[in-house]
Design a protein that fits this description.
Chain lengths: 287, 802
């Protein structure tokens, strides 16, 4: 349980970091909560860890009317307690509360979790559900990559070559919209057996106009499912959320593993969809 | 008396050290030592066809590489079968490093010694071992079917056929009014101490002596094993168990290969060598427990009284049997629990599989026995439409039936004779504690919240404190300090506190003056070990006897000085005084000084014991014939047989019928371990045991695939309950002293874990109305069970016949 030999560099600028990352086998280290266990178990053996923690300007949460920009060094715990961010996009705090345990939230970064592209991670799906994007620093300059183009497979993104994901952008929750987030895990703080994040938007007549859901630990990459057709045009009181849940069950294609069969995950997709939609719709009536 | 401490909830004196990072574990010892690491088999069953170390020898920092070919003398022989048994007809053990064939993933093949652990692992990565794969046997049913053999010369995979019976069970079953038969399974879990194994060895070349620190539950026996295997004289080997970060049974097994190989390398290299087991190693190369298949047939009358019980079991012992068949014997003999079973037959085959060895884990076969018996009680109740508590009550051994002879032979080779108990008292207290008779209201309240509530109970009897013996040494110094040592080891149980309480109480000294040392062969060479809930019973009584010996000697010397009769003296707060005569006293520390007649006054205290210090009796030698200098005493406690503790647990569960999540909302424990030295420590033991019971029932399993690969060999996927998953535990005590030992103690260490699986299975069954026949159970499995149209339905309410 000791890492193989690796080099370590702690650049103080993005340019320096990108130069270092151009070397073969160089890998970005931010919070280290996923990467360092992989090193210790010798499941990963990068030649060099490029520690970005000393690069200035990456540790801020910037909130505007458009949404929330989260820098690469923002820890989960910072987002969890960021009241202004929560007001603009409530999913951020709601999802972050489900990220592991306090010790991990204190060190782990939200952007690192997204760059790790683990389909069991909460924030990958939140990025997808909110229609967010990431900003990637490359030798050719910064690029913005939409979430749908970013996630390629489990632990795999479309970003190759020397690059640092410097920021994630989560668009603001639209007016007359509500959100909810809920997970089922084997133990408190574990990776979700299944999790669901949802957004419900009402039209000006307070009728359901959009219902979207994204799931955790279901599928290989984050997916957003449009469940609007099951309840479109209904008032919140009339809406049959179980119909949306039934639709969700037909749209997902979960796998089984040690902790849950595919059938059980499909069951939970329905249960969590129904529960979260009801809460999100209530909230939508108040915003 | 201010020093009367027996029975008081004294705060654990070791905790400040242990929880503020000042514990001294094997990994804290010997900075700068060379580090060992192991290349372990990646296959569950394979023949080694080659080991190529050439690519590894140029790594900077490599010191030595060992394979089986480097082992000589007794080291080249198989590891010992620690506990032979006549029914263990095909015992097999591995070698310290694999010879020709590996029998499970994780078996050590090559040992590397390097300047540090990082380098040692780099070297391991470059060693190429080639294998020819052999057919793999995983699981108790595959072993039983024996399509393939684990050991070539044991074609049926049966290591032992354990068999005991108390009468003609088939005739008794035939004569029974009712019978029922069923099959059930219980899966593997493991001890998972916070600190894995660890060994540090230093060889003193000039003195030709070896000092080994090892994270063990049996330092004296490790010492003997090292001396035997490395061909050293016993007095040249010292073994110390320092602070040990949990044991739970796995560290009673010895010698582990590493406990021999690390000292071997230290001697060969003339440098200290250290090895700390990592978590993956602990998963794949230490020990597991619990897996059994149980086929049970029970006969009973219209009242639910058992008339005959026949148990056919298969116990998965993993790849080897170094610890013999202790686990299946314990299952077989403790299965009967608190019940009078007129005719009982048990036959358990202990079978080989290509998996990690199975040796005692807290409970050590008892959870499986309890699971068999208690699920039988539930079935009888369901079949007859009787209350589950009432069926148990009708079968209990009555208080006037003790000592109660089960006519079975226990793990210590002695008869299973229950020394004392009050099982009806336990049941009464449990029913009251959990509110057994008012569950209907709780079910309704839970249903109003959309939850299904169920309650289950389970009772057990635990044979504790088996022999052969333990010893204690108590010595009063001239400073007034009281040194206590015993050979058995501590793994966090609170021995320092409990043993100090016993000595302070027996000797009449402040507890602050008492220092306790355990598990250090330099201090006490004769011991058996810490297992089977035996430390308080065995060492506690031995230490009490040693303290009484010191007290007798102190009173004899003080009587001389004070010119009083021994009978008129008492000791309190470290002062020997004539009862009722204030001022006629002498400090115990002065007695200690006087007990050792001196020629030389090396300090002020010593001056009092020198030849011209006071008037002497010229007609007697300074040390009387038959006496010895010093105020100290060694004594031993060796029991005629084990003492039997008992208890009853109840669990209340709530099931979410949409997600099938299982929440243990209440957990009640009634516990009887005889006289209690320290109730706070006993309750702590119960809490920890219940946590492991919940883990075994709902979370923990060793997920082997068909190739014998352990799929969840990390704490990410092997789910031990967090504090958030362990219910609050309410405890009620009952104290039925043991007549077998001077202090009236029974063991308390393992009790908390024993009924967990049985009682939580019962509660879930009660909640969902489906038969639970395999444990542990997870939400995904419960979902499968409730939607399986063939799943057996059971009545969920008392008084509703099936």
């Amino acid at each position: 349980m000791k890492p193989a030999p690796f080099g370590y560099a702690d650049p103080t600028s993005l340019d320096e970091a990108l130069t270092l990352l151009a070397e073969d086998g160089a890998k970005v280290l931010a919070g280290g909560q996923s990467l360092l266990p992989l090193l210790s178990m010798r499941l990963a053996s990068p030649a060099t860890l490029v520690d970005i923690n000393r690069i200035p300007g990456l540790d801020s949460v910037a909130v505007s009317g458009d949404g929330v920009r989260v820098g690469a060094l923002v820890r989960h715990v910072d987002l969890l307690h960021h009241a202004e961010a929560a007001r603009v996009q409530p999913l951020l705090a709601r999802a972050t509360a489900n990220v592991a345990h306090p010790a991990i939230r204190n060190r782990g970064t939200t952007v690192g979790s997204i760059a790790h592209a683990d389909p069991s991670g909460e924030m990958t799906s939140v990025l997808a559900l909110t229609g967010g994007s990431v900003t990637v620093a490359t030798p050719g300059g910064p690029q913005t990559v939409d979430w749908a183009d970013f996630f390629v497979g489990p632990l795999e993104t479309s970003v190759h070559g020397p690059a640092v994901v410097t920021e994630a952008f989560f668009p603001a929750l639209p007016p007359r919209s509500g959100t909810a987030f809920e997970e089922v895990s084997r133990r408190k703080g574990d990776y979700a057996v299944c999790g669901a994040g949802v957004t419900v938007t009402l039209d000006e007549d307070s009728r359901v106009s959009s219902v979207r859901a994204a799931y955790i630990s279901v599928g290989l990459v984050p997916e957003v499912h449009d469940l609007t057709e099951a309840v479109a045009g209904r008032t919140v009181a009339e809406a049959d959320w179980s119909a949306a849940a039934d639709l969700a069950r037909t749209l997902v294609d979960p796998d089984g593993d040690l902790h849950a069969s595919a059938d059980y995950r499909r069951l939970l997709v329905g249960v969590l969809t129904e529960r979260t939609l009801a809460r999100a719709a209530e909230e939508a009536q108040t915003r | 008396m201010t020093t009367k401490l027996f029975g008081e909830p004294v705060r654990r004196r070791e905790d400040l050290r242990l929880i503020t990072g000042r514990g001294r574990y094997t990994d804290d010892i010997g900075h700068g030592a060379l580090a060992a690491a192991f290349v372990r088999s990646p296959y569950a069953h394979a023949r080694i066809t080659g080991i190529d170390v050439n690519g590894a020898l140029d790594v900077e920092g490599v010191v030595a590489v060992y394979t089986y070919e480097d082992l000589v003398g007794p080291m080249a022989e198989p590891l010992p079968v620690l506990i032979p048994h006549p029914q263990l007809t095909a015992p097999r053990t591995g070698y310290p490093l694999a010879r020709d064939v590996v029998q499970h993933v994780g078996e050590a093949v090559v040992m590397v010694v390097a300047t540090d652990r990082y380098v040692a692992e780099d070297v391991c990565d470059r060693i190429v071992v080639t294998y020819e794969e052999l057919p793999v046997v995983v699981g108790v049913d595959a072993a039983r079917e024996a399509a393939h053999a684990v050991h070539e010369d044991v074609p049926d995979n049966v290591a032992a056929r354990h068999h005991q019976e108390t009468g003609d069970v088939e005739a008794a079953l035939a004569a029974s009014t009712h019978t029922l038969s069923f099959t059930q399974y219980i899966e593997r879990s493991a001890c998972m101490p916070m600190e894995g194994k660890g060994v540090h060895a230093v060889w003193d070349h000039d003195d030709a002596s070896l000092r080994v620190h090892t994270s063990t539950q049996a330092s004296t026996s490790v010492r003997a094993a090292i001396a035997a295997k490395l061909q050293l004289s016993l007095e040249k080997v010292e073994v110390v168990a320092p602070d040990v970060g949990g044991g739970f049974g796995v560290k009673i097994v010895h010698p582990w290969p590493e406990e021999l190989l690390v000292p071997m390398a230290a001697i060969a290299l003339g440098q200290p060598v250290h090895w700390a087991e990592d978590r993956r190693e602990h998963f794949i190369s230490s020990a597991h427990e619990r897996e059994q298949r149980q086929e049970i047939t029970v006969g009973y009358d219209d009242e639910g009284r058992v008339t005959a019980l026949d148990v056919r079991g298969w116990h998965d012992n993993g790849a080897y049997t170094p610890y013999g068949i202790i686990v299946p014997i314990v299952t077989a003999t403790q299965l009967v629990g608190p019940y009078a079973i007129p005719v009982y037959r048990v036959r358990i085959d202990s079978v080989y599989t290509n998996t990690v060895i199975v040796t005692p884990y807290r409970g050590a076969g008892r959870p499986q026995g309890c699971y068999a018996m208690e699920r039988t009680m539930d079935r009888i109740a369901q079949d007859l439409g009787l209350d589950r508590a009432e069926v148990r009550r009708r079968n209990l051994i009555r208080p006037d039936q003790f000592p109660y002879d089960h006519h079975l032979t226990f793990q210590d080779g002695r008869p299973v004779i229950y020394d004392s108990g009050n099982y009806e008292g336990l049941l009464d207290k449990l029913v009251a504690l959990v509110g057994w008779d008012s569950m209907d209201a709780r079910r309704e309240e839970a249903a109003s919240r959309g939850k299904q509530l169920g309650v289950g109970m389970a009772m057990y009897v635990e044979g504790t404190g088996p022999g052969p013996y333990e010893g204690g040494h108590v010595q009063v110094l001239g400073s007034g300090k009281v040194l206590v040592s015993t050979g058995l080891t501590s793994q966090g149980q609170g021995h320092e506190t409990a043993f100090a309480q016993i000595v302070a109480h027996e000797l009449g000294v402040p507890i602050e003056d008492v220092e306790v040392t355990t598990g250090d062969t330099r201090r006490f060479g004769y011991a058996v070990g810490t297992f089977a809930s035996r430390a308080a019973v065995m060492s506690g009584n031995a230490i009490a006897l040693a303290a009484r010996g010191v007290r007798a000697k102190a009173l004899r010397i003080a009587a001389d000085v004070l010119e009083a009769d021994v009978e008129d003296l008492e000791i309190d707060e470290g002062l020997v005084q004539v009862k009722g005569t204030p001022g006629a006293s002498i400090p115990l520390r002065t007695v200690a000084v006087l007990s050792n007649p001196l020629r030389y006054a090396f300090d002020e205290a010593a001056r009092q014991a020198t030849q011209f210090a006071g008037p002497g009796d010229d007609s007697k030698p300074p040390v009387a014939v038959g006496d010895a200098p010093g105020l100290e005493h060694v004594d031993y406690y060796s029991p005629i047989r084990s003492t039997f503790a008992s208890g009853a647990h109840a669990a209340v569960v709530e099931i979410d019928p949409t997600t099938w999540e299982i929440d243990v909302v209440d957990y009640a424990v009634v516990h009887d371990c005889g006289n209690i030295v320290n109730p706070m420590i006993v309750e702590g033991q119960v809490h920890g045991g219940v946590a492991q019971g919940v883990g075994g029932a709902l979370y923990e399993r060793m997920a082997y695939d068909a190739d014998g690969q352990l799929q969840n060999a990390s704490f990410m996927d092997f789910l031990m309950p967090y504090a958030s998953e362990v219910p609050d535990v309410v405890i009620d005590h009952q104290e039925t002293p043991s007549p077998l030992n001077p202090l009236g103690l029974k063991g308390a260490g393992e009790a908390g874990v024993i009924p967990g699986t049985a009682c939580i299975a019962s509660a879930i069954e009660d909640a969902v109305g489906r038969r639970i026949a395999a444990m542990p159970i997870s939400p995904t499995e419960l979902y499968d069970l409730v939607r399986d149209p063939d799943a057996e339905r059971v009545p969920t309410r008392e008084g509703a016949p099936a």
